[in-house]
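Data availability (excerpt). The following record was deposited with the supplementary files.
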Amino acid sequence: MRCDFTDSLLQGYFDGELSGRRAAELERHLRRCVHCATELVDLDLLRDRLQLAQLYEPATASVRRRISARLHAIAPTTAASRPLLWHWLAAAAALLFVAVLLWRVGYGPRGDDYQAELAEEVVDAHVQSLQLGRLTAINSTDEHAVKGWFTGKLTFVFPVRDFANDGFALRGGRLDVVEGRSVAALVYARPEHQIDVFIWPTREQDTSPRVGSRQGNQWIDWRKGRIEFCAVSDAPTSDLQQLQRLLTKQSDK
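Predicted structure:
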């Protein structure tokens, strides 16, 4: 079975295009996914083969004559051994790449606060939605209608619930983008406040809620059942914690 990371993150990691948090997430994944580790080595070998490939435009007759004259001065054994030498160098480079990769994955630093870093980007997405007036793509209080709207737009499923009786009325949802990945955003109304709950799949273990603040907004991030949630609002932290408990209780059902 093809791993999801192969298509979504591995190529970006190989090209050095991922953020520090996303790169660290993939490196943690590589520690337990032989398929992705092998795929990464194959990408490096493919790059070396392309660099060694004899891709060229046909030379004109005069250019061929000049090159041929110069080649007569080179010993045939030297010319013949050169491609073999380069192949050995390519293999050595691939082994070095694997060694460096294993060191980074096994012993590299992992002390950064990845959840806080990601939460900052989610807060930015929340603020931008307010500034652009792009609060919802589907404006509905109907749980089934909102869940149905997301069907087919994302590759994962998640609970959609209205907590109006608890003071958190569902207003709809939209798609958003965080670190180049499509995520779901459920919108809840609290008196004088809007709360965005960003949702996406994760391979990480469940975590307890973590809270923080940025740009006058509070956020709370947690993982449950291979789904990560991050609620953001200028509402009090206690409101976000209450909504988090409601969503977690719903996930347990």
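Summary of structural features: Confidence is low (pLDDT under 50) at residues 75-86, 103-112.
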